[in-house]
Design goal:
The structure is a single chain. It is globular and about 45 Å long. It has 4 helices and 11 strands. The protein has 2 domains: about 80 residues, Phosphorylase Kinase, domain 1, CATH 3.30.200.20; about 90 residues. Helix content is about 25%, strand content about 30%.
Amino acid sequence: MDIITVHHKDYEIIRLLGHGKGGYSYLAFCDGEYYVLKKIHHEPCDYYQFGNKIEAEKRDYERLKDAGIRIPKMIDIDMENEIIIKEYIEGDTIFDLVKEDRNVDRYLDDVRAMAKIAFDAGINIDYFPTNFVVNNDHLYYIDYECNDYMEEWNFENWGIKYWSQTEEFKEYLKNTEDKR
């Protein structure tokens, strides 16, 4: 059992939730509650340029919160060790639902509402379906990544390509399964 200490609190690592271009997210347990512990990594990413990742996470969290995007609350941030503690939102990701060939049409209005909020704030969020969790029929954007708005990366031009069993989704699945 791994323990990671953040600001004198011990977080028991339960399991890996996901590995993204910015870090590894783990389900963690502390003081009777579940959290997401995200540890920033510095692995190369050939399609995305980063500056200071932990600073970007902090800044992007504030931008998303100020815009009104439904996101998990940031509980703590350890700038020196590049660790973020987030509220854990339990539920299936849109990615898992699409992979299981379950219909996600009822969440399209929610993501489009988020896209409108993001557009009005001059930002794009990462619409890839691993970044969205359904909890009590509410859709949450669980990543903190956002960028200045660019039309080519909005939901209708990019994100929607991965919200059903499209060729793009199937190709992504094939490529990720090939790497295992």
